[in-house]
């Protein structure tokens, strides 16, 4: 039973990878096997990277997406294991919240079919060239499944890797939500309907608003971009980076 389920899963994924992508022959369609903390494995499709990303940029993006999947998988597994009793769930999504929404979002980031979504390194909308400080952008109505990553994203010191979480004075409360490649790309995937089904939005802006929204029992918390990012990185800090301690930067129990 188990192996036939696995076979079905693998066949399904192979069919997705092998399906023709009209006009997108340049897109990478390899698959990555992710091992979850429970020791089981599932195959997850890679995020498609456009040929405008040269080998240097493409390799960094591949690593960054692997970390994004890791971040989402750790969050998903935490939700499956602890459900509503998790203090992180109570903190970021509310004391009486359901985990169904964040669980769906993180599962889709980790494992949903990638369809026609695409990450590119050229500047088709000229936003990298003309918008001061933009490190990337969702293409919105110009190409709703596409995201541009500007050269600025690759600048030295701009983004950190997950193994730097809890290092260099970082705290979840005090750190920017786009400090890490994984948290930055998590946010960018939330904008892409192929992943988020257009259900994740910006309702709260920053730490205080996220906590305020959860405290009020606002049901949008589980669909809020910042709440989802803070939850994911706080759980990662606590479970992986500095196990059993984390680096929240706030009093535990608050
Ligand atoms: C790739 O593109 C970046 C940014 O445009 C550039 O700095 C880098 O030198 C390029 N790498 C290669 C191998 O061409
Ligand atoms: C869409 O393209 C137009 C024209 O190239 C550009 O001005 C606009 O900023 C683009 N929209 C987004 C969301 O980038
Ligand atoms: C959660 O539910 C309990 C029991 O129904 C209620 O007393 C409490 O006010 C609720 N809290 C929020 C934030 O909605």
From TrEMBL:
Keyword Methyltransferase: no
Record-annotated Putative peptidase domain positions: 11-249
Segment forming the signal sequence: 1-18
One example GO MF annotation: metallopeptidase activity
SUPFAM superfamilies noted in UniProt: Metalloproteases ('zincins'), catalytic domain
GO cellular component, as recorded: cell surface; extracellular region; fungal-type cell wall
InterPro entries for this protein: HRXXH, MetalloPept_cat_dom_sf, PRA1-like
Keywords for the protein's UniProt record, in alphabetical order: Signal
Protein name, entry field: Allergen Asp f2-like protein
Phylogenetic classification of the source organism: Eukaryota, Fungi, Dikarya, Ascomycota, Pezizomycotina
């Amino acid at each position: 039973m188990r192996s036939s389920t696995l076979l079905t899963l693998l066949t399904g994924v192979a069919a997705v990878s092998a399906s023709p992508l009209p006009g997108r022959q340049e897109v990478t369609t390899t698959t990555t096997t992710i091992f979850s903390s429970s020791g089981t494995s599932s195959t997850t499709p890679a995020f498609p990277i456009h040929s405008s990303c040269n080998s240097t940029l493409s390799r960094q993006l591949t690593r960054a997406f692997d970390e994004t999947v890791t971040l989402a998988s750790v969050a998903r597994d935490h939700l499956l294991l602890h459900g509503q009793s998790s203090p992180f769930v109570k903190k970021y999504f509310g004391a009486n919240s359901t985990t169904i929404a964040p669980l769906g979002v993180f599962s889709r980031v980790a494992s949903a079919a990638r369809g026609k979504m695409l990450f590119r390194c050229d500047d088709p909308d000229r936003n990298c060239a003309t918008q001061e400080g933009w490190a990337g952008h969702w293409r919105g109505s110009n190409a709703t499944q596409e995201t541009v990553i500007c050269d600025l994203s690759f600048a030295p010191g701009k983004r950190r890797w997950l193994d730097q979480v809890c290092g260099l004075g970082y705290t979840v409360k005090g750190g920017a939500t786009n400090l890490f490649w994984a948290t930055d790309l998590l946010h960018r995937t939330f904008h892409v309907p192929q992943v988020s089904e257009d259900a994740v939005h910006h309702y709260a802006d920053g730490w205080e608003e996220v906590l305020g929204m959860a405290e009020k029992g606002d049901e949008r918390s589980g669909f809020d971009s910042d709440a989802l990012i803070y939850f994911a990185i706080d759980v990662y800090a606590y479970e992986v980076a500095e196990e059993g301690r984390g680096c929240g930067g706030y009093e535990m129990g608050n």
